[in-house]
Design goal:
Strand order of the largest sheet: 6-7-4-3-2-5-8
CATH superfamily of the largest domain: P-loop containing nucleotide triphosphate hydrolases
Low-confidence stretches: 630-636
CATH topology of the largest domain: Rossmann fold
CATH class of the largest domain: Alpha Beta
Mean pLDDT: 86
Structural class: alpha/beta
Number of helices: 23
Radius of gyration: 32 Å
Helix content: 25-40%
Strand content: 15-25%
Shape: globular
Largest sheet: 7 strands, mixed
């Protein structure tokens, strides 16, 4: 990348340290940052409207002379009114808070060009806080075109102390300074095939267009900039995938037919999606280079049995499997499932957590037993844990682990890099999956196991609470259990929401004094949380009051009713994950959304579908990708220009073209690809490697 593009913005003509500090609040630290700080809108200021033709409610650009200036003092504040006139009429301009320089700006008989929204008042038409410019030069009876008038003008996102005129000057200087140094990164043939302008043309047209862009869809200049962002990312993901494929891993072909023994003794039939996911995983394990596969499945879709099938293959090949779960309760849950399913295939299964009694036996197996499966928590990647022959690492709910933790576990093998199989119960829309997991092989399990009954979902209001409490009593009388979820731990003065701690007190002491009511939330110590969840699973509590801490994983088949208070405070995908904690047994289950606020169409979606992928698409559309997954924990790249919803087709095309280019030039070593390779490495490659633990 050019040194000029990397130059600090304060060295652009007219900027300096003070303005640079303001620009940094908008993420503009370098000249390149300024180029990518695109206008949020445009105003067409090419046409002047005579003052006598103005209409209330319209945006207008007008030209006239100052005929009256009326400063007014209101306490410590100054208000300014300026009357602008032309042969056809007049208009009042006013400022509520007039700074001293503004008071000096307007002199009688001076001419100004002004832009703003025309509003009616008792004294005629007016424009509040308009953008204006003093006119000192005329051509053909009109003000000479400037940076701010007589053209299509960019409107940028502002911050306090940083105004449109200043931003336009900075952008003009940034473009003027950088254009000679902007090198075209995309291959010429690709630009021609996609009918896109050059990078220089694109930035010029985006910041200072000749015509007013269509607000409904991006123009060719923006598409060019967006495409490059997506293309660079997809190339980076592709290069990481190639890196995986160069890393040797054990060939796991299961000569003992352990998988077959497991499948023969399953108490249920696999769905078609499960069979497909297990089939491609089996092929991956037999290739001899590192598998990096993500199994993405809806709540209760049966991802665990697929991962245990992979563990059976590893065991039948004489290798160990490390199965990492995010919590002790989940690890114990997976251990019980694995024991019941893998015993028939004669695969030894051990549990390693910080507190389990069989820790010593598990550690001995890790050091000595080649074909075992060890299920555990963070205890698996302690320094003292040394695997004898680790061939497969399974990471359940992969987004709950940090990159460093996954990396530590992958380095536990003394016999080369193990294969990696990850799962997530968060349904991710296709456009987002392309972005987040383009370097991984992806399996999707949508079908639910046969016999799984649908979860009825209803919306109730606070006035329905007595009826709801009666329903809770009836559910408990049947011997079943209930979740009650709150978005807050303790009362908040700012947010008038019922809290978990307060409602635990009320429900346990006032409403259900004869029932056993438990409480769990994220501020508890880890071991205390685990204890409460285990006791609920063992039916020691009739009702569990909880925050969203139970969102992922816990499997209590006896829990058949979930009540979520203030559901409007949670995203749809989070509501769906919470709902998935019931409906895991043979009894009919129900989820009730107890809403105080106005019931929106967004919440009604929950009553219409149980398909997590449909819900995820809607959630992504409403909240955007950053909020949808939580940018920090997901590692979602932050695009400067691209929009994953608006530009989904462009993202798909970028992936297709990136794949084609990497087939032609796998490491981007050709001279004509030097610039694009440099961009990949500077923008995304290191970030993606950190995200994957590579």
């Amino acid at each position: 990348m050019s040194d000029v593009l990397n130059s600090p913005i304060q060295f652009v003509r007219g900027v300096g340290p003070k303005l640079a500090k303001l620009l940094s609040k908008k993420g503009i630290a370098t000249i390149e940052d300024a180029l990518y700080f695109l206008p949020r809108d445009y105003e067409d200021r090419r046409r002047l409207t005579p003052l006598g033709s103005l209409k209330p409610g319209s945006f207008a650009v007008v030209f006239g002379k100052v005929s009256r200036v009326k400063p007014q003092r209101m306490g410590r504040k100054h208000r300014l009114e300026v009357v602008l006139s032309d042969p056809s009429g007049e208009i009042t301009l006013f400022w509520f808070h007039a700074y001293p320089a503004l008071l000096e700006e307007f002199q009688l008989e001076n001419s100004y060009v002004v832009a703003g929204e025309v509003r009616p008042s008792t004294r005629g038409l007016q424009i509040a806080h308009p953008e204006f410019e003093k006119v000192t030069e005329m051509r053909n009876g009109k003000p000479v075109i400037s940076l701010n008038f007589g053209r299509v003008v960019p409107i940028y996102s502002e911050t306090e102390g940083l105004h449109q005129k200043t931003l336009r000057k900075v952008m003009r200087e940034a473009i003027h300074t950088s254009l000679p140094h902007l090198q075209e990164s995309l291959p010429e043939k690709l630009l021609t095939d996609l009918e896109l302008p050059s990078l220089r043309q694109s930035f010029t047209k985006v910041h200072f267009p000749d015509e007013l862009p269509n607000s409904e869809e991006p123009n060719e200049a923006i598409k060019r900039i967006v495409f490059e962002e997506f293309f660079v990312l997809e190339l980076g993901l592709g290069l990481i995938k190639q890196k995986h494929q160069r890393e040797k891993a054990p060939i796991l072909k299961d000569p003992e037919n352990t998988l077959e023994a497991l499948l023969k003794n399953l108490p249920f039939s696999l769905t078609d999606d499960q069979k497909e996911a297990l089939g491609v995983t089996q092929k991956d394990l037999a290739r001899g280079f590192s598998m990096c596969r993500l199994i993405q499945g809806d709540v209760g879709a049966g991802k665990t049995v697929v991962t245990l099938g992979a563990a059976a293959i590893a065991s039948g090949s004489g290798y160990q499997t490390a199965f990492m779960a995010p919590t002790e309760v989940l690890a114990q849950q997976h251990y019980r499932t694995a024991k019941s399913l893998l015993d028939s295939a004669q695969v030894p299964v051990y549990l390693l957590t910080h507190s389990n009694e069989g820790k010593k036996e598990a550690l001995e197996a890790i050091q000595n037993q080649e074909n075992c499966v060890v299920i555990g928590t963070h205890a698996l990647f302690q320094e003292s844990v040394k695997f004898k022959k680790l061939g497969l690492v399974i990471v359940d709910e992969q987004h709950r682990f940090g990159v460093e933790q996954r990396g530590l576990l992958l380095k536990k093998s003394a016999s080369g890099k193990p294969h990696l199989l990850m799962t997530t119960a968060t349904p991710i829309p296709r456009t987002l999956a392309l972005t987040l997991y383009g370097d991984l092989d992806l399996s999707i399990i949508r079908q639910k196991p046969k016999g799984r009954k649908p979860i009825r979902t209803r919306i109730l209001r606070d006035k329905d609470r007595p009826r709801l409490y009666q329903q809770i009593s009836e559910v408990v009388k049947k011997g079943q259990q209930v979740y009650v979820i709150y978005p807050l731990v303790e009362e908040s003065e700012k947010l008038e929401l019922k809290s978990a701690t307060e409602m635990h007190r009320k429900l346990s002491q006032e409403v259900f004094p004869d029932l056993k009511v438990g409480l769990v939330h994220g501020r508890m110590k880890s071991e205390d949380k685990e204890t409460i969840l285990s006791r609920f699973k063992e039916k020691e509590f009739n009702i569990l009051i909880s925050t969203t801490v139970i969102e992922v994983g816990i499997d209590v088949p006896n829990a058949t009713l979930m009540i979520i208070e203030h559901p409007e405070r949670l995203g749809l995908s989070q509501l769906h994950q919470l709902r998935g904690r019931v409906g895991r047994g043979t009894e009919e289950s129900e989820c009730i959304l107890l809403a105080d606020a106005y019931v929106t169409e967004r919440l009604r979606i929950m009553t219409k579908t149980e398909d997590g992928f449909v819900i995820a698409e809607e959630d992504l559309r409403i909240r955007g990708p950053g909020e949808f997954l939580g940018t920090r924990q997901s590692g979602l790249p932050g695009f400067r220009v691209g929009n994953l919803l608006r530009d989904a087709d462009l993202l798909q095309r970028a992936k297709t073209e990136a794949d084609k280019l990497l087939k032609e030039d796998p490491c981007l070593k050709k001279q004509e690809h030097a610039i694009i390779r440099q961009l990949v490495e500077s923008r995304w490659k290191q970030k993606i490697e950190r995200l994957r633990g590579g």
